[in-house]
Specification:
alpha+beta; 2 domains; nine-stranded antiparallel β-sheet; about 25% helix; globular
Length: about 250
């Protein structure tokens, strides 16, 4: 389960500070106070790690691809009044969360990433720290788009290369794994653990699709309304049909 969330310069948030998360966490606030932004940050990471484009550092969304959230370009996500902190620059977005293993034998860790604006308005990864102890690594972009790589329990960098760039903000490239050598095995397990944690996120948000003039029901009884509420009408119609059938059988 997720244990904390921290955002820097993300939409309305200059900094959330480290927000603790529990099995049940309630968010209260007025309209446009940033509640949805907290959820969107996690959905962005989920659709990034679930994507197929290894070169996409942060998937800001594509409605045609069925992404959960579509936030435009990097400048649309960057806080207009962003501030610099000790770790995050004013023109960078920072996303951090902690997680704890949900099953016996699973360890937790911390995911901490910073992004800058890239070509065409994309989000480029400039710093990534993931895992904890010996089960983790840090990658930081330097000059000429080369990334320095550290195993989490080693102070000296393993090396520096453009080929060490993390893929989809959470996993090693083959070149980075080869450079780590025998230290790669325990570190490589962190990526799948993070992927499994983010895959557990289910968004039951409000219906956000524009209303249509007519709705055609295929007769399908959906198991969920979908992240954007796209199957909400099907669910409502199916529920009404099911109630009528139940009343008819009860006569």
């Amino acid at each position: 389960m997720l244990t904390h969330l921290k955002l820097n310069n993300f939409k309305i948030w200059r900094s959330t500070g480290q927000m603790p998360l529990a099995p049940l966490t309630l968010l209260f606030g007025t309209n446009s106070s940033g509640k949805s932004s907290l959820i969107q940050s996690l959905l962005l990471l989920r659709q990034t790690v679930n994507g197929q484009d290894a070169n996409l550092d942060l998937n800001l969304g594509n409605a045609d691809a069925g992404d959960s959230v579509t936030l435009g370009q990097f400048r649309d996500v960057l806080c207009r009044y962003g501030v610099a902190t000790e770790a995050v620059k004013a023109r960078q977005i920072g996303i951090e969360f902690g997680w704890r293993g949900g099953e016996a034998g699973q360890s937790g860790g911390v995911f901490s990433a910073r992004y800058e604006q890239g070509h065409g308005g994309s989000a480029d990864l400039v710093y990534l720290r993931i895992g904890q102890g010996r089960l983790g690594f840090t990658a930081q972009r330097g000059s000429h788009a080369a990334y320095r790589l550290w195993a989490a329990d080693v102070r000296r960098a393993v090396g520096q290369s453009p080929n060490f760039k993390p893929q989809r903000s959470f996993t090693f490239s083959d070149a980075a794994a080869e450079a780590l050598g025998t230290r790669a095995a325990p570190v490589l397990s962190v990526g799948p653990a993070l992927l499994a944690e983010l895959s557990r996120i289910i968004y039951l948000g409000p219906v956000r699709r524009l209303a249509q003039r007519d709705y055609l029901w295929s007769g399908h009884f959906p198991g969920s309304i979908g992240d954007d509420g796209g199957r909400a009408v099907d669910a409502l119609i199916a529920s009404g049909v099911a109630k009528k059938e139940a009343r008819r059988r009860g006569r």
